[in-house]
Protein 1
Amino acid sequence: MVLRAIFILLNALAGMALFARAENAGELFGLYGFGVGAAAGALIVAGEYALRTLSFGVLVGGTIGLSVGLLLAGLVEWVGGNIFGAETFRYHIEGLVFLLGLPYLGLVIGGRLGQERFSDNRPRAAGSSLKVLDTSVIIDGRVADLCETGFLEGTFLVPHFILNELHHIADSSDALKRARGRRGLDILNKIQKMADLDVRVVEEDFLHVKEVDGKLVVLARQMGAKIITNDLNLNKVAELQGVRVLNINELCNALRPVVLPGETVRVFVLKEGKEAGQGVAYLDDGTMIVVDNARRCIGRNVDVIVTSVLQTTAGRMIFTRLKEETEPEELQIARG
């Protein structure tokens, strides 16, 4: 930002110097030149921002189309000047239309063809290895463990606006947010040091998109990449727009041990449940276990029998009852 401000200032000073050297320059010519130079510098900076949001294919196609349009406009003007009267009002109007219209059409058509050409010819294997990291999954930290085990590999893309969001969270006045932001920066630094991974910071920022999730989806579509996240809302938005998502939560749910009704599990009853008399325990992977009539067992290890398993978007819940209550029922049935 500072470099761009210096560039605009230098343009303004150059404009002031050029206007001051003009013939019959008045006292205000220097101020006019300063304003014109500053405006020209601002337009160039605005053009740079606009170009940063465009893909490589659009830039190449647009440049080729603009060049072809200018050549056609010059050719039409030369032919028209030799055939029709070059001094007629009609000739000047038609020449202006061609001079503005043909380059514009070339720019638009060339940009569209370039985008389609490069997006269609992008190697699928290379595209599938590109992965965009979301803020939530960086702060979560489990992605670093997956990278260490070798389950995730390839090229990781970290957009600059994600880095800005992490820095903003790390500088928050709230202690919890500040800790989460610093954890995310530490995790990102850890991933960058892994030898088998290529982590690249992407400078592209889509100014026409306000939300960070929307920018991630646009970037992933443009780069042909997948998004790594644990945000359910981002997952849904990306899938609706045809972007593949690697959800860490879904992976963890899929890797949790399968517990079937009737199996016996030994758990530590940690706290009281929502319903009267219930106790709550957890497996090592964080799966919640609800134990009927286990309030009296809080703080103890007990054997429980699985009665049912409920799978939700938030995770898996296992409903059980105490084995000591089940055994008398089994003995009674056996005696009967």
Note: The mean pLDDT is 77.
Protein 2
Amino acid sequence: MPHGMSLPAMAAIRVPRVWAMLGHKAGDNSQVLALAEALGWPFEEKRFVYKPYELVTNLVLGVTLAGVVKEKSSDLGPPWPDLIISAGRRNEPICRWIQRQAAPQRVRLVHAGRPWAKIERFDLIVTTPQYRLPVRPNVLHNKTPLHRITSERLHRDAEVWEPRLADLPKPHIAVMIGGNSGPFSFDRAAAERLARQASEMARAQGGSLLVSTSARTPQAAIDAFTATLSAPAYVYRWSRGATDNPYFAFLGLADSVIVTGDSMSMLAEACATHKRVYIFDLGEGRYAMRESVAKAARRTPRSSAWWKGWEKARWNAFWYRQMMRFGPQRLSRDIRIVHRHLVESGLAVWLGDEFPEGKPLPTLQCVARAASRVRALFAEEHAGAAYVAFGDGSEAADSDPAFWRESA
């Protein structure tokens, strides 16, 4: 029973109706589900498929469902939600359409990541440093993305997969592979380099690799990776619609984790396991993710074979780098900011580096802090508390704007 409430008051309480808005990006969906699950309230998943020209309709019409393939998407109708949790540009017009249809009922809109509409149109934005959003009362600045890691989930999935991996020697090293991201490319050369480094690490420890690819992993790259492996390994190739994905099981079974540096979500999930996490740099030389490496390479003259490096960098990565240099910040993100935080805080090191001896690993608080801020939206209701809004003990810290900027 909430503190200070009588039984008659409890009888009047209802749990907020929550909709989790899901699209085609696994990272966005993971953050939405992480927050919905952390609240502890029942929630309904709403899944959407988008038309190829949705950007045009959304820009022209704003609040609209014109960009949605309705026959392949979830139905939208009353009873309307009290809370919508979303992520990604494509879902923003849908959320605002729901708010308009539900009026005069108040529908709170919580968005994870970077919004494309004006910040003041959201009740809360839960963001991370790579998006470089301003400090505002309705913006929660976490240092890492939201994640779905719980000890229960890891243990449950690990129990299912452990017998299948009984022949692989321990310790297990999980290798979580993403793909191309902005100015960085996971090409064949990067995949071969990852396979060599991961194999060397496994052989040095007398262990094996538990490898999981993702929806963004290029087929040619994973082919090159598997062909280069020289240590015992189980390789799971992601496929759409698969129902037996071992991602959480591998995180649960692993003694340490290697994550490609393109995926902030996978990095946060790996760090949330409280195991040693190694970041794989997709680039080399002047194209490295590590700024110290890239700056050092730029100070040296290009070799006569510099075109080889040019060919390895995809054209979209090249144009993204130009946009980061010359375009508005709103159109790009700088994931190196998150890398710096993970390394400087002791949550992770670059693959090839060593963890400091005797230094305990930090604990992520991003999910608890975000859930606390969402509950506060309902705790602000008028006296009589129309909604349940149980706290988790972190509200005092979350009320300090400096804490929003500096904490993990």
Note: DSSP finds 16 helices and twelve strands in the chain.
Protein 3
Amino acid sequence: MKVFKKRAKPLARSTVTIIAVVVAGVIFASGIAVGRSGLHYGHQNTESANQGLPAHLDYTSVDQLYTQLKQNFDGKLDETKLLDGIKEGLVKAGGDPYTEYFNTTGAKDFQDQLDGSFSGIGAELGSENNAIVIVSPIAGFPAEKAGLKPKDIIAEIDGKSTADMTVSEAVSKIRGEKGTKVKLTVVRGNQPIQIEVTRDTITLPSVKSSMLDGNVCYIQVSRFGEDTVDLATKAAQDCKDKNGTGVVLDMRGNPGGLLDAAVGLSSLWLPQGKTVLQEKRDGKVQRTYTATGNSILKGMKTVALINEGSASASEITAGALKDNGAAQLVGEKSFGKGSVQSLLNLGSSLLGKDAKEGLLKVTIARWYTPAGKNIDKAGIEPDVKVVITDDDTKAGRDPQKDKALELVKQ
């Protein structure tokens, strides 16, 4: 997407990140790609359904293929590119769009994007039904301004078909220097549309807050980053200090981010020990994440806004608040990203920060809401469905926010 658990500085300890559709790297790269829904840094599973495979693959046939290619290819081959191609093909053979290999350059880009700094169009990319889709255009950035919408299928990038492209490949083609343009052919419904987007520097604010109608606190979370919990906590305390009577939590268009941030945000409403999510592998619970305390907003009437662009960590938070009876959900069904990925740096140390020989992002589990539901591909349905029409957008109306305010004030 992106959701990610807080990153350890030296990455010596396990860090979880939830990548909603392709993690911010993938997410931010194309303007955003985090796809995300659950990323563990350096986390390796001791149990696997693949234990029956040999400890080492027999590369005899690969060496034979290499020999024939080297002897007969009309052109100059690059050893590094050949090795990267083998690794990419090996990982892609698993058939999971969220399991990917990044070479050293791609790994650096990925890490930079997770840090929230990149040049692109400001749209999170994901994979759905073997197609590259827009998960969420980020408010105020080029993708949104150009008219891209959640669920748009990207059919071509600068005239090149996206068939068989991974999200990362699409992201790398959409990324580029600030001020340059990228031409996208998207399919919306059954209608192909050509959209040209001018790239820009993408900087995503994490949390914004204000007061509505004097006594209702409005907290908008646009991504789940390292500063989200601190900023949201300050916003929550400010709400209490101003005698706020209710909260509108806006997570529309939020592609996800750090898992720790989702747990921390949920903890502003949930008492310590309440389940936020469970992580399962092969149907077995691997870990249960619970609220950490500091429930400043516990008991305060809350409505959370979600839409098709709400993914990963946003869905974790929405599910936790809904299942624990801490908030009503208003808007439209969320994106639906319920898998968990682990980030493994390859090379001298799997836990080292620098990816000496690349980076492996591998799906290791599924996450479940407190009520035991996995929302992958299904999303979370709001308690009150409110659709924003094209006429609403043109007129500058926000019926979802208006409904949330109405419910909070009842």
Note: The radius of gyration is 21 Å.
